[in-house]
Design brief:
single chain, 183 residues, alpha/beta, Rossmann fold, eight-stranded mixed β-sheet, 28% helix, globular
Length: 183
Amino acid sequence: MRIVSGKYGGRSLKAVPGDATRPTTDKVKEAIFNMIGPYFDGGRSLDLYAGSGGLSIEGVSRGIDEAVLVDRQYAAIKTINANIAVTKEPEHFQVMKTSAESAISRLQGSAPFDVFYFDPPYAKQTIVNDVAQLIEHGLVAKNAVLVAETDQNADLPEAISGFKQVKERDYGITVITIYEYEG
């Protein structure tokens, strides 16, 4: 695993040890950023199921100003912090060891987010509920983009609480669905 492009491009990233997370492959990561970017002029991102932190770190490498990474597993948080250290710019990242639901509640009142990465455990996919909570708590910026990485059984709807599906691509068992916020 590595940072594919941008100012940190080519640097290696660690995966979370064990079977509790599955890192996004470099091929899928490159495809995601080609669909939503590929580069950014600032903004904030939120990853509620950060795992190794690869998607958020890639986003900052490509121009996102600040990334908030959330995971509830100690091993994931340890890996995220090690991967952030590779960037040598920890000031661009905020790491929270908590559940997605708790993070959303704690983030209420902060600046809204422009990019959301959703890569929850496939069997515990709660994207629709999480998005409703983000909107209710005022955490979604105008024209925000949502990236959902699921398996083929997720069957996400065409629209989620003001987000409209604009792209969907299959990569083996992984499905990437891109939504844009219409408010």
